[in-house]
Write a structure and sequence with these properties.
Layout lengths: L1 E2 L2 E2 L2 H25 L20 H8 L38 H13 L21 E3 L18 H4 L9 H14 L8 H11 L18 H12 L2 H7 L3 E12 L9 E12 L5 E7 L8 H6 L2 H15 L3 E8 L4 E5 L3 H15 L1
Parallel strand pairs: 3-5, 6-7
Antiparallel strand pairs: 1-2, 4-5, 5-6, 7-8
Length: 358
């Protein structure tokens, strides 16, 4: 809204809207009051100066009657006007004027600038109670639960040579994951049509894990290139010949592992690809669209270590079978990183998650 050639902010706009709504409500109240009179209608007002208009009621009456004589302006009805104050038998009490929101806000701002004021007990920030949560999502961990080893620490200067394009990387990841969840690895056919169809028919596709909606700025050609590179890889060929394949597999793992308490905690997530290879062994693959090179492969992969270990723990707990390999597949460069899964890794992820959930 433009007012007097100046920009009106949110608070001012709210004040203007509130003022108009209040005025309309006051007029409705006057209508209800005046239409309830049976024999006589008496309207009274305290004015500093006769003839002075104050408030919506006086404005409305002035449109119809002369306030000093009572003569009707557009009809034959007349009203009697009394200008002398009536005698009072009791002494009027002092009343406190109602403070406006604007004045209260100004007062609060002045106190805050001086470092004064007191925050009421029940308006203070509520400390999060981690013990109260029962369900936790681990679909897109970004490092909250990974150990800070030298390999997992990288400075901004070290990554400046890999700037992201001006697009939504999560949106690109959403599109790529959606295609890889649908394409037939044994016979990909024209997978480029799948990419364009998902973008065309589903302007806001979301994966089951709640990944953000697809951005309209997603580079389709880049997505097609990454998917094509993966479909031509040995990893895709292995998945194509697998005995059993599960994609975008949801899991809900009771915590701690083995717990049978229905009111206990649960860890929820989605595994990009879980498959039983030709040798009958289970493997987990998680796709990433990060822009990296072989030099920084270990550094970037370390950020997802706990995520992958948790996926392995969930799959092993549910399948009652061992997981032989955990693979992060970086689609842009076509690079893989493998995590070890053994009793030591299993105990480490259990201890670390317990620490963060306590």
């Amino acid at each position: 809204m433009i007012r007097d050639e100046q920009y009106v902010g949110g608070y001012q706009l709210f004040s203007i809207t509130e003022k108009e709504e209040t005025k309309a409500e006051i007029i409705r109240l006057l209508y209800v009051a005046t239409t309830r009179a049976a024999d006589y209608l008496v309207l009274s007002s305290g004015l500093d100066k006769l003839g002075k208009i104050e408030g919506p009621w006086m404005e409305l009456l002035d449109q119809r009657f002369d306030r000093l004589t009572g003569k009707a302006r557009k009809s034959t009805h007349q009203v009697k006007v009394v200008t002398s104050p009536p005698p009072l038998k009791i002494k009027p009490t002092k009343t406190t004027g109602r403070q406006t929101l604007k004045k209260l806000l100004q007062k609060a701002q002045k106190k805050a600038q001086k470092g004064e004021g007191r925050l009421p007990k029940y308006l203070a920030p509520v400390a999060p109670d981690k013990a109260a949560r029962r369900q936790f999502s681990f679909s897109r961990l970004t490092g909250v639960l990974h150990e800070r080893t030298p390999a997992s620490i990288i400075t901004v200067d070290e990554t400046e040579e890999f700037p992201e394009k001006a697009l939504d990387p999560l949106g690109l990841g959403t599109l790529v994951h959606a295609v890889l969840a649908e394409v037939d690895f044994t016979n990909p056919g024209d997978y480029t049509e799948i990419v364009r169809r998902i973008k065309r028919d589903s302007p806001n596709p979301q994966l089951a894990d709640g990944t953000v909606p697809l951005s309209p700025e997603v580079d389709l050609e880049e997505a097609i290139e990454m998917i094509g590179r993966f479909l031509a890889s040995s990893r895709a060929s292995e998945i194509a010949t697998a005995k059993e394949v599960h994609r975008e597999l949801e899991f809900m793992l009771a915590w701690p592992p083995g717990s049978r308490d229905p009111e206990g905690r649960y860890l929820q997530g989605f595994i990009d690809c879980l498959y039983r290879d030709a040798a009958g062994q289970w493997q987990i693959v998680d796709y990433k669209t990060n822009r990296i090179t072989a030099e920084y492969l270990e550094v970037e992969a370390a950020k997802y270590q706990m995520q992958m270990l948790l996926y392995a723990l969930a799959a092993e707990t549910i399948l009652k079978e061992s997981i032989v390999e955990l693979t992060l597949y970086f689609l842009r460069p076509g690079l893989e990183y493998h995590f070890s899964w053994n009793d030591i890794a299993k105990q480490r992820v259990i201890d670390l998650i317990n620490q963060h959930l306590s």
